[in-house]
Amino acid sequence: MTIEDILLGEETLFRDISAFNPDYIPDRLLHRDSQMESLAMCLRPAFRGGKPKNAVVLGAPATGKTTALRKIFQIAEGTSDKLYCVYVNCQISTTRFNIFSDIYEHLMGHRPPETGIPFSRIYGEIMKKLIQEEKALIVALDDVNHLFYSKNANQVFYDILRAHEVFKGARTGLFAIISDIEFRFMLDKNVSSIFIPKEVVFNPYRQEEMKDILEERVKTGFYSEVMSEDVLEYIAELAYSTGDMRLGIDLLSTSGDLAERDASKTIKMSHVDGAVKNTSVGSLKSTLEALSPQEAELLDFIVNYEEEETTAGSLYQSFKDRKKVSYASFDRALKKLELLRIIDTHFTGKGVKGNSRLIILRFTPEEIIKYL
Ligand SMILES: Nc1ncnc2c1ncn2[C@@H]1O[C@H](COP(=O)(O)OP(=O)(O)OP(=O)(O)O)[C@@H](O)[C@H]1O
Ligand SMILES: [Mg+2]
To answer: Over the stretch 310-337, which tens digit does the pLDDT of each residue have?
Structure first.
C-alpha cells in the first residue's frame, strides 16, 4: 500500500468514523436515564421563571458524565429559549477570567478581548444580558477539581451563585462535575456555605451495559456485518476488565483501522489483539518515551519510593535531597504525570488546610520500569 492509498483509499469499513471521536455525542445515551432525568429536574425551574437547581455530578472516569452533560444541554437549549447552558472544561479554563470568557462567548457569540477589559465588565455584561432577555444561566464546571489546584473554586462559585445579590433578577445555577469521590470533600471544604447541591451519581457500568453501549456505537460507526457478535463480546470483556469504557471505544476504532490495513471486510479477533497492543502497552511505552528528563527522573523516584503511603509533601522532601529542585517545578512535573494519566492524585483531607495529596501509580512499577 502506498501512502496515497492509505490516505485516500475508497474502501472502508467505517460508516461514520466520527462516532469514535472522544467528543462524539451519541444520539442515545444508554443506561443513563435516571441521571438524565435528575439533571432535567434541576433545569426545569429555569423554564418557568425560576432558578435552576445546583447539582454535583459524581462518578468514576469514563462513566458518561461529560457526555450526559453535553447531551442534556443540547436538549435544553433546543427545547426552549429560556435558558443558556454553558459547558466549561476546567482543565482548560482554570481562571475566573477564562471561565467567564467562556460564558461570555456562549451568550455574545464572540470572546471578550484578552486584555484591557476588566473582569467586572465582562461579568456585568453577562448578567445584564440575562436580565434583559429574561433568561436563566446554568454553568457546568467539568473536572472542577482543577479549580481547587488553582484555588479559584470559591471565587468562581461565588461569582455564579450570588449574582442575584448585585444583579436583581439574575437567575443562575451551577453543575459541578467530579470524577473522584474524594473531591467531594474538597467541595465541602471550599464552597459548602454557598453551594448546596443535589447529588447525581454515575455508577460504574455493568458488563452487559458496556456491551450495549459499544454495540450501539458499532451500529453507528461501522457498516453492518463488519463486526460479529463474538468480536464485540470480546471487546466488551476487555473494556469491562479494565473498567474503562474509553478503552472499549478505542479498541473498536483501532481494530477497524487494522482490519482496513489488512484489506479485510470484517474485523477479526486478531485485529482486536493488535489493537490491544497498540492502545494500552503501546501507549504507555510512547508516553514514557516522551517524558522530559526531569519528569522521567521523578517518575523513577516515585516507582522506587519505599514508604507505605506516598504523599506529595513527603515525596518532595525526599526528592529534593537527591536533586536540587524547587517545589514549583516538582509540582509541575507531578501535574504532568497526572495529566498523562500515569499517576493519580487523591486529596486526603489531611495536612495543611487539608490539601495533602496521595500519589497513586496507575500502572504496576514493573510495567513502568520496563519502558522507562
Ligand atoms: N451511556 C453512554 N452511552 C454512549 N456512550 C457513552 C456512555 N457512557 C460513556 N460513553 C462513552 O464513553 C466515553 C467516556 O465518556 P465521558 O467522557 O462522558 O466520561 P466522563 O464520565 O466524563 O469521564 P471523565 O471523568 O474521565 O471525564 C465517551 O467516548 C462516551 O461517548
Ligand atoms: Mg469528563
So the answer is: 899 999 999 998 888 898 889 888 888 8
227-230: which pairs have CB atoms within 8 A and are 24 or more residues apart? Answer: 227/252, 227/266, 227/267, 228/266, 228/267, 230/269
Q: Which ligand is nearest to the CA of 30?
A: 1
- Let me know whether 218 and 166 are in one domain: no
| Distance from Cα 142 to the centre of ligand 2, integer Å | 7
Query: Residue 200 Cα, ligand 1 centroid: separation in angstroms?
Result: 15
CA quadruple 22, 28, 32, 38: dihedral positive or negative?
A: positive
Q: What atom in ligand 1 is closest to the CA of residue 64? A: 18
**Which residues neighbour 189 within 8 Å (Cβ) at sequence distance 6 or greater?**
349, 354
Ligand 1 centroid–CA 64 distance in Å is 3
- Asked whether 246 lines ligand 1 (CB < 6 A), one says yes
Residue span of the structural domain in which 339 resides: 291-371
Q: Which parts of the chain register pLDDT below 50?
A: none
Q: Which atom of ligand 1 sits closest to the CA of residue 248? A: 12
User: Could you say which of 288, 315, 342 is where a domain stops?
Assistant: 288
Residue 95 main-chain phi, psi, to 5 deg: -105, 160
